[in-house]
Specification:
By secondary structure, the protein is an all-alpha fold. It is built from 10 helices and no strands. The longest helix has 39 residues. It is globular. The N and C termini lie far apart (76 Å).
Length: 283
């Protein structure tokens, strides 16, 4: 037995010492990762197809959608407002610091307004909501999955996608642009207060700069991005929640995966959506 025990490590070492052994192991690992990613994409495609198929039945889920709009949107406002206030404040301070000695302060409102409306408002709001809503949806659906509540719903002849996924996605697509409008306004007001109280920028100078280069396309672009971000957040939360397995530990993994995937996809999508909107459409 001792001889066999020593032989196994020696065999592994001999295999790794072979010229192609490490390369084969690396290729095998890459292959497993690729197959896992393709499987994940396939499951996501199946959920998207089920979601699109359930859209005509949205009228039957209006009450569920309204409840999710309250839970995901309205209940997130305090967190969003606090984030927006300090986002606007730090934007004003940083812009004033970089303007000093180079650019007149009358452009402070311009920079704050466009930065908040185009980029900071939609993206930071989506990241905050993604952490809260994405984790909540994944944990809730994951718990239902591991306790077989979703199986019980389907055994009653109820489509789980229509009942659980559709209301969450539609609610988030509607509410995130609305929340972003609140965040934009609060951030600009926060920047205005900081500029007036600490930077000696008069209200007239700040507001005139805010109006100077204002374009309504900037607002539309930010809201379009927010709608895509809302779809992504809710989709990732529902997707990882619905595929949960492994008890409480599996729920924790699904929650983490949903938040990480939402945040990464928001940042990646931000680049591509901005490239399309502000280079090809709003030109």
């Amino acid at each position: 037995m001792a001889t066999a025990g020593r032989a196994a490590p020696e065999a592994d070492a001999a295999r790794e010492a072979q010229p192609g052994g490490i390369v084969v192991d690396a290729l095998a690992a890459i292959g497993r990762s690729t197959l896992s990613a393709l499987e994940l994409l396939g499951e996501l495609g199946i959920m998207l197809r089920a979601f699109v198929g359930a859209l005509p039945q949205l009228g039957r889920s209006i009450h569920l959608t309204a409840a999710q709009m309250l839970t995901m949107g309205v209940n997130s406002l305090p967190l969003v407002i606090v984030t927006a206030v300090f986002t606007g404040a730090v934007t004003a301070v940083q812009a004033a610091y970089q303007f000093e000695g180079w650019i007149p302060m009358r452009y402070l409102g311009t920079v704050v307004g466009r930065s908040v409306v185009i980029e900071l408002g939609p993206v930071l709001t989506a990241l905050v909501i993604g952490g809260r809503v994405g984790a909540s949806a994944a944990a809730e659906l994951g718990t239902m999955k591991v306790t077989e509540q979703i199986d019980a719903i389907e055994s009653l002849g109820i489509d789980s996608t229509r009942y659980l996924v559709l209301p969450r996605i539609v609610a988030m697509v509607i509410m995130l642009p609305i929340i972003t409008v609140f965040a934009d306004v609060v951030a600009i007001v926060g920047a205005f207060v900081v500029a007036y109280a600490t930077l000696d920028v008069s209200p007239h100078i700040f507001t005139s700069g805010l109006r100077f280069f204002f374009k309504v396309q900037d607002v539309y672009g930010g809201l379009i991005k927010a709608a895509f971000f809302g779809f992504t957040i809710s989709l990732m939360g529902c997707f990882f929640g619905m595929r949960t397995e492994g008890g409480a530990e599996g729920v924790g993994r699904s929650t983490t995966s949903a938040v990480v995937a939402s945040c990464l996809l928001i940042l990646v999508m931000d680049y591509f959506i901005a490239s399309v909107l502000f280079r090809l459409i709003f030109v």
